[in-house]
Amino acid sequence: MLNKELKNGSISHSYFFHGENMKHLFELALNFAANVNCKQGGCLDCKTCKNTLKAKYPNLYVLEPLGNVITVEEITELNYLMSISSINNEFKIAIIKEADLMSDITSNKMLKILEDPPDEKCIFILLAEDINNIIQTIKSRCQVYNWIFKSKSLEHFDEKFNDIENELKELLIKLISDRKNITAALNFSGHINSYIPKIGEEIIKKQKKETERIKKSGLDEDEIDRIIKKIEANNKREISKLTGLIIKHVFDIIAYCLEDIIAVMAGSKRETLHYTDNYNIISKSFYGESMDKYLELLDIIRGNKIYANQGINYEIALDRVILGLVQL
Ligand SMILES: [Zn+2]
Predict the structure, then answer these.
(1) Cα separation of 160 and 166, whole Å?
(2) Using CA atoms, how far apart are residues 106 and 69, in angstroms rounded to an integer?
(3) Ligand 1 centroid to 122 CA: how many Å?
(4) What CATH code is assigned to 2-146?
(5) How far is the CA of 6 from the centre of ligand 1 (A)?
(6) What average pLDDT does the segment 131-156 reach?
């Protein structure tokens, strides 16, 4: 589709690529950038292609956020660099990695740039694994492409996520089979909090190894410093991304449990439940109650899930829902 656009000369100023692997998204963006400027339509062999693929080309600018957010300064610099005219009258291409790290302020700044590009020959390619955090106005400004990858960047955490699900399911069964146990309900969010440092630990361990290796690499001190800072920033980002994912995962599991409760109240059969094992307990524990309260709790979970990756305090919502399951 992209190549067809290029052939027809109907190139857009702004693209948005999303899919669950930043590394692959970046490779695709570089390939696309090479195709745009290559005189042979993307031979992948000429100097333009080769250097673009290496992300070292004067008409290519890559914004890789250094911290946990994309700052106003980073966007301002991007705008300045894109306003300088390109070499050989080619397109100037900006690739913005981790575009979901834009705050409301930087998003609006970015939007202004997309609406009124600093130069006619500008192309912006925004990348994000999760497009849900991108403001609508940016999405509608861009040509959006969703890529499905075989390998997801956080796949090696799948096993951990399964463990969390199993543990949580057990906790929830205990909770709904003994609904007078307020202590268990009160300890619930504390338990969820313990998942996050456990996953963080692993990333920090990996960071230590990488840092050691770089220190022994024989590079000059400034370069070592720069690389280490980059590793630290990347890891910090990975931890916050994972934290968001864990919270979402936890909310999903609790939502399944609530949906099951509501389904049983509405007379659904065991086979239709998410967690069929809970059927008997739910029938016994929630017999004769009205489902309104549980629909409300489900709404709270759904409402809060949206904010899970913005580091918003999720404990209050969690406590409210879990205490809602208890019979005071
Ligand atoms: Zn080429």
Answers:
(1) 10
(2) 9
(3) 19
(4) 3.40.50.300
(5) 14
(6) 87
